[in-house]
Structures are given as structure tokens and as C-alpha cells.
Amino acid sequence: MKNQILGLAAAALMLAACSSTVADEKTNVPLPIASRSGTVQFDQLSGYNAAQTQIANKITSRFAAAGYGRPQQVAAVSVAIRESTLNPKAHNRGCNCFGLFQMNRSNGLGKGHSVSNLTNADYNISLILKEASRFPSFKSARTVDEAISVFVRNVTRPANKPKVVRATIGTARKVEKSAKGAT
């Protein structure tokens, strides 16, 4: 009886895994959801030091934990590079923006938050994840370019969106060369 129950449980798990699939972008072969939400990692992010690489890995880990796949993880790291060069303490006096994703304290996502919170990497990432979750089109983006476009236009909302999208896509090409994992 015990073996029958274990067998039924294993069959149920297999069935659940098979029914929760997405298509692989290259081959259009269904993949389990779990393989889509793996974490992109960087042994060494080309052009950046160990501390910056560690921050990039923190961003990808947090985005993966929130259920975002490779396109979204690469997009988030690319945006953070463009915004702060992966420096959690970054401050742009011109716009009163702080942290990894340059949260604007005057009238943007940083409004109502302290400088010490905005310059805390974990706090800053949490705020950007909360904002990103408002846009289903970010989560459903199938390519890095699409994820960047949605992220920049809807989440970070800079003044010159088309220019920032193009520049961030250029950054993403370099980031992708260093990325490992999360197919």
C-alpha cells in the first residue's frame, strides 16, 4: 500500500511538471516552468569588478526568485548598469535619484523613501520588483530587447525613452556574453 501511494505521488508530480510548460524560444519545444525561472549568474561580468559582479548576481537572483526568466534578469542588470554602473550608493544630483535603479525622490519611485533605504541594494531591488510586477508585459517578454523596452518605458520611465532603450539594448549585448545559466 505504501509503495502504491508513493507511486501515485510520483506520477502526480510528473503530470504536474509536464502540464506546466512554456516553449523554448529557439526550438519551440515545451520546457518545464522551473527551467525558465532559473537564475542567470556571472562568474565575472566583463568590464566590471568583483563587487559589481556580486550586485549583478544579487539582481538576477532576486528577479529569478520573483519568477522572472532570463530576458527579464538580463534586462534588469543592463538597466542597473546604465543607471548606476551597479553602484548601490549612486546619486544623480540633477534628478535627485539614488541607488541601483536611480529612484527619483522628487516625483518618481523614490518619493517618500529615505536616501539610506534607496541606497540599500536589497531595498532598491525590492522597490523596482514591486513596480515591475505591475506590468504583465514585462513578465511575458520573450526576448531581452522586448523586456528592456517594457522595463524602460513602463518601470523606470526616463525622459528620453527611445534613446535609453537603444543604449540599454547595447549594454545588454555585452551582459549576455558574460551570463551563464537560465536558458
UniProtKB/TrEMBL annotation:
Stretch forming the signal peptide: 1-23
UniProt KW keywords: Signal
InterPro entries the UniProt entry points to: Lysozyme-like_dom_sf, Phage_lysozyme2
Domain Phage tail lysozyme: 55-174
Superkingdom of origin: Bacteria
A Pfam family recorded for this sequence: Phage_lysozyme2
Protein name, as recorded: Phage tail lysozyme domain-containing protein
